[in-house]
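Action item from last meeting closed. Structure (294 res):
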């Protein structure tokens, strides 16, 4: 068993080594072609002030903004920590961050009810018949989870918060009682919560959440933005860095952008890869062929 594990690990190392060598070889090719250090236009980025973007968000929401009451706890610093974590699903234009369980939780309960229903049908069919009840229970056991997974794939975008680097706006996710709305990134803050320490010397997880300092006037109270799995300061400042159109997209994010390009999917999963970002790619290698990515 240990030998099989060692062989698998060695195979994985060889494959990663090949990928790294191919990646470096492609960069040398782009350099020789004279395109790697050639700067492309940044016209696709927004050039609007905060006030202009606030007015644009109000137009999209259909109402003006109002200032929220002071939050009880202190906000985390917006100064970047120079630590880059995986910031989430990102296509270079949009970063998608999943909020606290919504559609995912609904699909989980549907799958659970399907399992319990299948188990109940199996017992009834086994004891009293008819036999087709047992066949129906088997279908619920195996087809039910697959159907709920496919349903989650189709509706998962409803749970995602959209951070749009090209507009400087944040679009909140759908909820049961509220439609999404837009707010400038400057009006979203992070409030740090307690650190949850895993048992037996495991890792730790931050429980910070996002708070709005302004929100649409049509709401009676400040809407909350709860993120799935909580948030740490390093994660939050990396998102702010991504949203700052005066800063390059960090190289740690390039791999995620390339994955979306290969699948021809945007970060929200509901459309093709953004056209404005395709100019940074080599169509043949499906790799970013520029030193600077805006």
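Sequence:
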């Amino acid at each position: 068993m240990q030998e099989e594990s060692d062989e698998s690990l060695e195979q994985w190392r060889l494959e990663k080594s090949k990928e790294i060598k191919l990646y470096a070889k492609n960069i040398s090719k782009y350099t020789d072609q004279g395109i790697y250090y050639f700067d492309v236009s940044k016209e696709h980025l927004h050039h609007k002030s905060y006030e202009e973007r606030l007015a644009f968000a109000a137009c999209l929401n259909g109402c003006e903004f109002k200032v929220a009451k002071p939050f009880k706890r202190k906000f985390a610093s917006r100064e970047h920590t120079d630590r880059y974590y995986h910031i989430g699903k990102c296509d270079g234009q949009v970063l998608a961050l999943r909020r606290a369980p919504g559609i995912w939780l609904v699909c989980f309960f549907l799958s659970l009810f399907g399992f319990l229903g299948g188990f109940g049908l199996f017992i009834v069919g086994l004891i009293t018949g008819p036999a087709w009840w047992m066949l129906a229970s088997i279908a619920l056991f195996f087809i039910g989870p697959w159907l709920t997974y496919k349903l989650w794939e189709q509706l998962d975008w409803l749970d995602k918060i959209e951070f749009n680097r090209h507009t400087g706006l944040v679009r909140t996710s759908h909820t049961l009682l509220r439609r999404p709305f837009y707010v400038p990134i400057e009006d979203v803050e992070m409030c740090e919560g307690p650190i949850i320490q895993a048992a037996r010397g495991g890792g730790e997880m931050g429980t910070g959440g996002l708070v709005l300092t302004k929100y649409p006037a049509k709401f009676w109270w400040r809407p909350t933005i709860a993120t799935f799995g909580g948030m740490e300061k390093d994660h939050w400042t990396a998102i702010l860095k991504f949203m700052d159109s005066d800063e390059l997209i960090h190289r740690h994010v390039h791999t995620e952008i390339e994955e979306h390009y290969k699948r021809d999917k945007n970060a929200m999963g509901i459309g093709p890869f953004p056209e404005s970002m395709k100019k940074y790619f080599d169509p043949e290698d499906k790799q970013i062929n520029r030193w600077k990515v805006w």
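Note appended to the action item: Residues 100 and 164 are 20 Å apart (CA to CA).
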